[in-house]
Amino acid sequence: MLVLVLVSVCLRFYQEYGSSKAAMELSELVRCPVKVHRCAGRVVQTELVVQIDQRDVVPGDIIIFEPGDLFPGDVRLLSSKHLVVSQASLTGESWTTEKTADIREDQSTPLLDLRNICFMGTNVVSGSGSGLVVSTGSKTYMSTMFSNIGKKKPPNDFEDGVCRISYVLVDVMLVVVTIIVIVDYTTSSALTESILFGVSVASALTPQMLPLIVNTSLAKEQFLWPETDA
């Protein structure tokens, strides 16, 4: 029995070691080197194009990209030649987007519709170009988008309306129940029975008010946002 336990432990350790080693080898294969401009020389500065890892790219780097390259950060295009980019990782749409550096976008243009900006996580389908890295890591658009997913959404107008009307009806119910308890106590002089009668009235009013709350809120929304003809 002890031999079987030791053999199973050794097999488990060998499997975990093999899987971790395979994962490390795969991570080495999927690394996408990035071509960046670098200056070399102490006396005479010579501009070189070198390949570095994506993790070593910082804002201010000028990168060169070709078909199949992934953008290591949010990039402002400096030059482009028939550049087509896939933004499926951001939009979920399968179609591609043409990007060009020879354009000045308006401030009212939606962020994902900017044609002179390429975002981290997108890839080059065809064409080539160069660009200035403006943000990396947690400051990119993709990172901020993912960080906002788990945040609680603020209440909308309908939820605010339901909440306000609920408070008003609860206040009215409390006033009515208080009056009923006082009137019943003055007539019967039994405080316990009057309180129990008031609690029973409050319990009966609560489910009856729910349709009123919902219908009032829906009527308010219909009044504020009337339907328009297409």
Structural topology:
Elements: H1 2-29, E1 34-40, E2 46-52, E3 62-65, E4 74-86, H2 88-91, E5 96-99, E6 117-118, E7 123-135, H3 141-147, H4 157-188, H5 191-224
Antiparallel strand pairs: 1-2, 1-3, 3-7, 4-5, 4-6, 4-7
Helix pairs in contact: 4-5
Walkthrough of the structure:
- The chain is of the alpha+beta class and 230 residues long.
- It has 2 domains: 34-147, Distorted Sandwich (Calcium-transporting ATPase, cytoplasmic transduction domain A); 157-224, no CATH class.
- 46% of the residues lie in helices and 22% in strands.
- It has helices spanning 2-29, 88-91, 141-147, 157-188, 191-224, and strands at residues 34-40, 46-52, 62-65, 74-86, 96-99, 117-118, 123-135.
- Strand 1 (34-40) and strand 2 (46-52) form a beta hairpin.
- It is elongated, with a radius of gyration of 33 Å.
Number of helices in the DSSP assignment: 5
CATH class of the largest domain: Mainly Beta
Summarize the biggest pleated sheet.
Answer: 7 strands, antiparallel
Report the uncertain regions: none
Q: Structural class, from helix and strand content?
A: alpha+beta
**Outline:** elongated
CATH second-level architecture of the largest domain: Distorted Sandwich
Q: What's the helical proportion of residues?
A: 40-55%
Order of helices and strands: HEEEEHEEEHHH
The number of domains: 2
What is the terminal separation in angstroms?
78 Å
Radius of gyration: 33 Å
Strand content: 15-25%
Oligomer kind: single chain
Mean pLDDT: 77
* CATH superfamily descriptor of the largest domain: Calcium-transporting ATPase, cytoplasmic transduction domain A
Give the tally of β-strands: 7
What is the CATH third-level topology name of the largest domain? Calcium-transporting ATPase, cytoplasmic transduction domain A
Organism: Rubus argutus (Southern blackberry)
InterPro entries: ATPase_P-typ_TM_dom_sf, ATPase_P-typ_transduc_dom_A_sf, ATPase_P-type_domA, Cation_transp_ATPase_P-type
Domain P-type ATPase A: 42-146
Signal peptide: 1-18
